[in-house]
Task: structure prediction
Amino acid sequence: MRALRGRSAGARARRGDRRSRRRSPATDAGRAGVPAVPARHARPSARGAPEVPDLTARSWLVADADTGEVLAAHDAHRRLPPASTLKTLFALTVMPALPSGIRHRVDPEELEGIGPGSSLVGVAEYRTYRVSDLWNGVFLNSGNDAVRVLAALSGGWRATAERMEEKARDLGARDTRVKSPDGYDEPGQVSSAFDLAVFGRAGLRNPEFAEYCARAEASFPARDGGSYPIVNTNRLLTGRTGSPRTGG
Result:
């Protein structure tokens, strides 16, 4: 009887394990082509690879952009406010529905609700922009004003947030909750290092997304009809020093 009870308990445990695996975010992401990441910490496994240095970040992940292989990670599913990194998911969600050549005259209402201290590219009411201009404002300057207008063109603020969450789930990213599509901090808005890696890899598979990411400089339409240069705030791309202000 002891043996039978032991086997029964083992079978229940195995069934429980199978159910847990079916519900696991890592398993869902694996089906989407992203290898599972350990829950807490991983060290590089390749022979001769350097040790991970001491880092102050509460959560991080390093993955191969081509294969998705997780090379090292720490607490990668920890849910934290994503700030402007959430714009990667915004672009993945909205870009396919908005051809870059569309021209749009900005209504003042579309710029309402921008959070204090937001990063802005300088979108002006009653000015006409191409969708590609607005994407330059998002990718190079992290412009929350540009996100507002693109979201308005894509069904509105709340509808865009809902579609972003659906897109995240489709990609196997289960840690993300969207309240503000521009990433501006709102109660309940969270993502994780794992999910952001999923978004980044998915984005780089899209040639249009990758082209904007790689752009170091662009001209942005000015209020008076002229234009002015904007520079990518990614210092790894531009080589510029200093800490740009990117308030979410």
User: Anything to note?
Assistant: The first helix runs from residue 2 to 23. The beta strands are 41-42, 60-63, 70-74, 103-105, 128-130, 217-221, 227-231. Residues 120 and 143 are 4 Å apart (CA to CA).
